[in-house]
Amino acid sequence: MPTTEPSYLRQLGVFGFDHFEVVILAALVTEDPLLLIGRSGTGKTFLLNSLSEALGLAHRHYNASLISFDDLVGFPYPDNENASVRFLETPATVWGAESVLIDEISRCKPEHQNRLFSLVHERRIQGIALKSLRFRWAAMNPAATDQSDLESYTGSEPLDPALADRFSLFVRAVDWDDLNEEERNCVTSPAGEGKLAAVNERLQAHILACRSCFVTRLESCPQGVLDYVTTAVTALNGAKVRISPRRARLMARSLLAAHVLQSGFLEKTARLILECSMPHTTWGTEIAKSVLDAAHRLGWKAASKSPQRWVDMMFAEARLARKLEVLITHCPSADEGTQAIAQVLASENRERAAAFAFALYPAAVMGKLPIGSEGANDLGRIASPILSVDAEVTWTERGSQQAAHHPGYDAYAAVLASLSGARAQRARQFFCWCLTEQIRLDDPVALEKEIDACARLLKKQVAT
Questions:
Q1: Where are the chain's structural domains?
Q2: Rounded CA gap, 154 and 43, in Å?
Q3: What's the gap between Cα 139 and its chain centre?
Q4: pLDDT tens digits for 108-161?
Q5: Class in CATH terms, 8-216
Q6: Residue 395 is inside which H or E element, if any?
């Protein structure tokens, strides 16, 4: 099995990227698009051009702020039969390229961004497949969000989210203050200016071997990698950090490549690739470190061999019905199910905990959930007041003795008007409890849908 050597980038005369070497090599193994982000002069272009030289690739380097479409495809002309259009190629056109670097992509005109979209995503131009193209790379300065900065990179616009989501990995280039003394001396050496990287046969062989292993394992990806990605992505979406299904797949590919490179699934690498898989920085949004750390912890526990990993999968889910689904599917014993129920009820806010208990309690009493009597009692303690609501609700405005609507009454009535049957009865019971408890729901429609989703899932569970 191939293993990662820590010296490949240094052999190319590239310094300051040691921390990200496994990420960059993973992008070479997957052949998925890679984007470097950093201030001017931090070695982004040098790194990518050096990789193309070391791998002996037919390479094209385009400046997106200056490029015209003719620079990419050449000049069109009809074929001899006037039946189709051909392109007059030059040494700079993209036809025949094995690697492409789109420099200054954040300074690209919108119409060119759209044309580059299919190049990055599909390896196509004008609908024509670029059969030789393996690597698609790009580089950009940070988006100009703070105009008070003397080096604010005016003209570097936030990347279109749809285009950014087609890149697999995002690497932040380090600046002078992040380099150690040895790296500063190496970077400063005048011998590095204009130097071309020689073909590195050792790097070529290493990437080729890892690529072969990666392709073989695509159909049998380690379960730990899948558990990590699904749990971490679920947790991030639950924290209002939107991660697309496409990005989840790209992240799994990168982690599988790192697994091959390092002959194992390492926690430190998983956390690094999770961070480098976030496209949000390209449009000027930073994800809090605490949010990434929390998603990583849940993902890593889910990926471990610990029998408690199902609990972390349950807590990563934002929707109540998905929590219930994990409980039904993965809970190994009534004692563990009881503990999980207690933790969910304690971690959710009052109305969501009440909705969860209200939906689950009837099935718990029937013994259709993998929880013990103590767990059923915990659900009953919260659900019983909801199930026993039978009162005429009135509301008196403070400072006035005249009866008035409860502030949430009209919103609840509007939801009930669109429902019928058992679903309407459940919603009416829950909303009446909210009125008596003086709870005003921010989104009664969404919470009613969550209760109904739990009820439908439990209906199947009771029928089995």
A1: 8-216, 331-464
A2: 20
A3: 20
A4: 876 677 778 889 999 998 788 999 999 999 999 987 654 445 455 666 788 888
A5: alpha beta
A6: strand 395-396
